[in-house]
Structure formats: structure tokens, C-alpha cells
Amino acid sequence: MKLPLFPLDTVLFPGCTLDLQIFEARYLDMVSSCLKAGHGFGVVRIVQGSEVGPAASEYASTGCEALIRDWQQRPNGLLGIRVEGGRRFDVVSAEVQRNQLTLADVNWRNEVEDLPLEDQHADLAILLEALGQHPLVETLGMGGTAQGQRSLAHQLGYLLPFQPEQKIELLQLDDPQLQLQHIQRWLEQLQGDAVS
Fold it and tell me: Where are the alpha helices (DSSP H) in the chain?
């Protein structure tokens, strides 16, 4: 399937919410055609290049489908959209169109069955609930109680201040238990850095 790509300085995860301001013609056209056709677009993390101007020259090979959940005209006249992360995908090949929009051939990743939270995940679940109290997280309608290991891993991976490379690594992992182990380890490293 051909999927339009929106390279950003963000790593989007399934089930997570992202607000975007759209002002470039290529992305206004993309959003319009996505709304008409009822499908999403792909969000990939920029490795080299910028969000604005010519198409990013390099981006992560794994991304997340963005499904448009809401849109409105902002007071500044720009189009605001709210997207929710859908399926994960790997970019097989990509081509930059004349209008600088990148169209990619993608392979959708298989999702393993979600597993219920276990006792060892209690601290991470409490952390997600605490993050849900933050006004910015609250406006996105995120945080609170996780439905399972995958939901917990994706929300924490999205909301916590990990390095972009770490977030991409998390997105590429298929096993939620492995994702949660990585998150636990990185949190301990962050705490260690804060103490030293």
C-alpha cells in the first residue's frame, strides 16, 4: 500500500494522541485526501532534515499510522488536527513527489496479542496514572489506567523524556514485555543521572 508520510521530530505510538498544525500545501492536500478516503497517513521520526521545507532526507524506517480523529480551524487561521496512533509499519521504499510529499510502500507489522498487566508492572502503571494528572497529558486524553502491557508500554514510551533513538527502538519491538523492560531500565538510568 502507498502511504503518505509526515516526517516529524516526534515518535508516534499506537493508541497515543498527537495535535498538529498544518500549513504547508502538501500536507493540507494530504489531510484533505485522507479525510475523503477515510484512511490515515504515516508519521516517521526525522533523522536528517527538518519538518518544514524540502522533504526530509532521512527518517526512521519504522513509523506509526496516524488516524485523524478531529480537525478545526485554529484562531491563527491554520488547520489543527488531532490524530491517534494506529498500526505500526516498516518503510520498504519511498518516493518524493513533485510537491515534496513523500509516498511510501509500507509493510504493516503484526501485533502480538496484548497481555494483562502483572504485579511487576505496578510501579509503571502508577507512573502512567501520575502522568495523566499533568494538564498537557490530560488535554490529549491520555494517561490514567492502562488496558494492558502494550497500552502501558506505548503510552509511557510516548510521554516519557527518552531519547528519540530509544523511542524508535521501543516502537520497533514487537513484544510488550520487552518494551516494558526497556522502559524500566531507562527510567533507572534517568534516575541515576538525576542523582549523580
Answer: 25-37, 122-131, 135-139, 149-159, 164-172, 176-195
109, 92 contact by CB (below 8 A): no
The three cell numbers locating residue 13: 505510538
Residues in contact with 108: Cβ distance below 8 Å, sequence separation at least 6, in sequence order: 1, 87, 88, 89
The predicted structure's pLDDT at residue 8: 95
The reported pTM is 0.93
d(CA 186, CA 189): 5
Give 10-residue mean pLDDT values along the chain (196 residues): 92 97 93 94 90 80 97 89 97 94 95 90 95 92 91 96 96 96 94 72
Contacts 24+ apart (CB under 8 A), 53-56: 53/100, 54/100, 55/7, 55/96, 55/100, 55/101, 55/102, 56/7, 56/102
Buried b / exposed e across 126-136, counting CB within 10 Å, b at 16+?
Answer: ebbeebbeeee
54: helix, strand or coil: coil
